[in-house]
Amino acid sequence: MVYVPIGIEWVYLKVFKIFGLKENRMYSFFNGPAFLAWSRMGNMKNFTAPLTSEFIDFQVSLHRNISKRFNELGIKIAIPGFSGFVPHAFKTIYNETYFNDVNCWNGFNKTYSCLLQTDPTKELYQLVGNVYMKTLLESFPTNHIYAVDMFNENTPVNSSLLYLQSSGKNTISVIQSADPSGVWLLQGWTFGYDSFWSNERVKSYLEDVSSSDVIILDMFAEVNPTWNRTESFYGKPFIWTMVNNFGGNTLINGNVLSTLHGYDNALKNSQSVIGFGFMPEGIYENTILLDGIMEFSTIYLNGNQNSSDPSTFYSKWKNKISQYRYSSYSGKIVEHIIDRLYSAKSLGSFPESCFIHKRPGLNMTFYSNSNLTENLSILIEFLNIIKHENIEKVSDVFLYDLSSVLQNYAELMFHEKYCDMMNAYSNKNLKLFDNIVLVMMKSLALLDHAFNLMPLRSLPCHLETVSLFALLVNDSPAKLHEDFRLQLTTWGYEGEILDYASKMWSGLLSGYYKLRWKTFFEFLRSSLAEGTPFNQQDYEIKVKGIERAFVTNETLGDCVAWEDQNIFDLAALIEQIIVLASEF
To answer: Which of 458, 462, 478, 460 lies closest to 470 in space, CA to CA?
Structure first.
C-alpha cells in the first residue's frame, strides 16, 4: 500500500466552488510546493502561496499515472479522505458554531497557521465531507483506503471522551457514505506525539470504529511504539511503521538488530499487527537499515517464521548485503559499516544528525550514535578501495554511502573542533583560538568542494531542477527557489523551525553555514580580544540577516555533472579534510 496525496488540491477546489467560495479565497488555503504537505495535514495555509493552476493540473495528471502504474503492479493506494479543514471564508456562509479554530502550529502566526476545521461532531462536517468524498471518487480511482488525520499535531479542542468517540464514528461514517467498502487509514503519530492522548482517549476515539474499517500506522515504532501501551490499539489492525527520517536529513547510523527485535516483538506479542510500513519525512534514506527491515518483514510475511529469528536473520543478512552492496570490490567495508555505525546502544527519541548545520552559538551540544574514530576508519577504507582497486565505474550506492560517511565524519570532527575552540576561548588563549578557527573554516570550504562533485549533494543541481519544474508549471523560478531555500534553512520567514530540514550540500555549506560560522567566530574573537562579554543580541541580529539574505538570494551556482574520474578528485579532497582535522 502506498499513500498518494498528489493532486488533492484539485478536488478541494471543486468542493469549495460547490459551496460558493470565490477563487481568490480558495487558493490561499494551500501552501507553495515545498510546504504543500503541511497544508494537506492541516498544519499550515497560504505559506509561499499561491499555486498555479498549471501546477494543480500537473499534479492531477501525475496522480492518475501513479495510480494506474501501482494498480498494474498489484499495489494498493491510499488517498486523502476529508479531515475537516476548510478556508476561513466558510465562516461567511455558515454559523461559527460549526467550526473549531485549530491551534497555531510550531510558532507560525494566524496568517500561515491556525486553520479552520469543521467540527467533526456537527452536521456540517458530514455535509462537506459527503460532497468531498463524492467529488474525490469522481476524480480519482480508489482502492477503498482513505487517509484521515484530524488531529495531526493539533490538539482536539474538546477533551471529553464522548466528543472523541463521536469524532471517530463520524470519520468512518463520512468515508462510507460514498464508499461502503471504505477503510480509514489513521496516523498513530498523533497518539505518540501529543501527551493529550491518554490511553482512555485513544480508546474512546477508536471505540465506535469496527476493526474491519480502520488501519492504524504506528509511526516511529522503531523508537517510540504506541501499540504496546494501548493494548495493540485496543484490537484495531495496525502497521508497525518506521519513520527514521526527520526533515529528510538522515545519516548512516542506527541499530539494525534493535529495530528487527522491535518489529519481531510486535509480531510475537500483538494479535492485530498486520505488517511493516515505512513513512519517511524525506526522500534521502538510511538505505542499509531499510534493506534489513524490509527483507526481514518479507521473510516473515511469506510464512517463513522459522527463519525470522532476528539474531539469526541478522547474521545471514549482514553477510549477504556485504556481498552485493558494492559488488566485487566491497571486501569487508559493508560489514564494518554495519558493525560500527549500525550498532548504536541508544537510538534516542530524536537522534541528532547535524552539528555544522545548526545556527552557531555558545554552549552547543551534539548527540550522535557513532563516534569520530569509527567514521574515520571507515572513511579510510573507502579511500583505500578507490586508490588500490581497479575501479572502472563507481556505483551510485557506493557514492551515496561514501558521502554519508563523510558527512558523519565531518559533523563529529567539527563538533570536536568546536569544543576545542570554546576551551581556547574560555582560557583566553587567542593564538590557539585563531588556529582552530582557521582549521574549521578551511574544512568547511573543502567540504563544499567535495560535495559539489556529487549532484545529489549539490544545491546548484537541485536549484537547476527547480527551475525546470517552474517552467513546467508556469511559475516563477525565483519564487520556487525561495520556497525551496526556505525549507532547507529557516523553515519559516521568522525561523519558526530553524534548520529542521538542513542538508549537507555544496552551496549551503559555502553560502549559508560557512557565513554563519564566520560571523560567530568574529563575534567570539572580538569578545576575546577586547575582554568583553559575547554580544548575543548583536550577533543574533546579524546572523538572522544572513539567513534572510540566503533565502532571497537568486544566485544559482554551477551544477557539476558527475563523471567517474571525479571519484579521484573527491578522494583527494577527503584526504585533505582528514589531514587538516589532525591539526590542533
So the answer is: 478
Cell of 468: 525546470
The count of residues in the chain is 584
User: Does 147 have pLDDT greater than 90?
Assistant: yes
Q: What separation in angstroms does the CA of 352 have from each of 165, 245, 247, 398?
A: 37, 11, 11, 24
Give me the torsion for CA of 572, 576, 416, 529, rounded to 10°: -150
Pairwise CA distance, residues 330 & 381, whole Å: 10
Give Cβ neighbours of residue 214 (< 8 Å, ≥ 6 apart): 172, 183, 184, 185, 186, 206, 236, 237
Lowest mean pLDDT among 208-217, 225-234, 353-362: 353-362
Residue 295 and residue 300: Cα distance in Å, rounded?
Answer: 9
Give the integer Cα–Cα distance in Å for 557 and 134.
Answer: 47
Which of 133, 140, 132 is CA-nearest to residue 18?
132
Sheet holding 116-118, edge to edge: 85-86, 116-118, 99-101
User: pLDDT band at residue 349, thresholds of 50, 70 and 90?
Assistant: very low
Say if residue 555's pLDDT is above 70.
Answer: yes
Averaged pLDDT, 221-250: 92
Q: What is the mean pLDDT of the chain?
A: 93
Q: Is 81 helix (H, G, I), strand (E, B) or coil?
A: coil
Rounded Cα gap, residues 173 and 366, in angstroms: 47
